[in-house]
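Observation: inputs received (chain + NAI).
Thought: call the complex predictor directly.
Action: predict_structure
Action Input:
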Amino acid sequence: MKKYEIAVIPGDGIGKEVVPVSLKVLETVAEVHGGLKFEFQSFPWSSEYYIEHGKMMPEDGLKTLKNFESIFLGAIGNPALVPDHISLWGLLIKIRREFEQSINIRPAKYFKGLKSPLVNPNDFDLIVVRENSEGEYSEVGGRIHKGEDELAIQNAVFTKKGTERAMRYAFELAKKRRGHVTSATKSNGIFHSMPFWDEVFNVVKKEYQDVQTASYHIDALAAFFVTRPQIFDVIVASNLFGDILTDIGGAIMGSIGIAPAANINLNGKYPSMFEPVHGSAPDIVGKGIANPIGQIWTAKMMLDHFGEEELGKKLLDVIEDVTNDGIKTPDIGGTSSTEEVGDEICRRLKKAV
Ligand code: NAI
Ligand code: MG
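Observation:
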């Protein structure tokens, strides 16, 4: 019996609604598999916790989390109780940084039963590998003077290690998919870092002769996400470029409620973290209509991460069948509740064996 210990942080708002439904789905996956067991330990760290304790998690929170196989997170943020920069930096961003989750992966695919804003979605199925620890999002730089002479300098940091790490991850992923990697560059306009990015890409790609490659400037690449997303398999991008591209990825799928993300730790020293792209959605909290698919799809990514890819694929197929049959929440044009969608996924998982 394979056993996975998972730390669960439902967090705020609809996180507390979509996480329990997703755990039920994971329990069902384990039951159907027979040789697999999940042990969940839930932590109440959230904005409400902050109001009670003056911090988002206990001092030794990270030490506690470190012992788990992975972290399954809902959403953080309740601006009515705690300012967003405090809640996000006090928990989510802290975990990403301290646990060296240097890669952020975000898939986007044409989803049966969903209305894509694209006229002809052409069955796109892509995944963005975003460098998650450096690049444009650095604290290097500063501001001086006030008034007319005021000046701000923001440096981007690209290390050979960090760049290679993201690219190798993309190539390894492509080998398991359709064998194609696209590099997001801008070496025609950015003088130092992007020619460096291209150089590293050209070296790394030599190690993967069986993988096809392409390189596009980020502006053209962003346009292609809209006009012909079907040409992409894996895209490797810097922190900022990846951030922007994945919002377009979510948009062409049709709803933020279904988009998943994974923060991957590659050195094995710390757990990885799985979360949906969406936030705590205060506007629909308590109504029972939050779409659980983003959270359930991130559970699928966790299964992949554990090496249970076959199970992951089965789960995604079932989610898509359920959506295609119209059992869906109002954000994607249905009338079902969060629980109804979850229960139907569980029912079909059992049938799929
Ligand atoms: P949001 O993603 O929570 O909501 C944006 C819109 O999408 C809302 O209209 C919401 O109802 C809808 N929506 C989101 N998820 C949905 C779902 N699963 N089903 C149906 N509809 C869904 O973003 P917003 O409103 O900007 O932020 C709300 C709070 O969440 C803030 O405190 C923010 O800081 C936090 N946040 C946290 C994130 C995280 O924990 N990773 C990511 C984004 C925002
Ligand atoms: Mg973003």
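Thought: report the result.
Final Answer: The chain has a mean pLDDT of 95. The chain has eleven helices and twelve strands.
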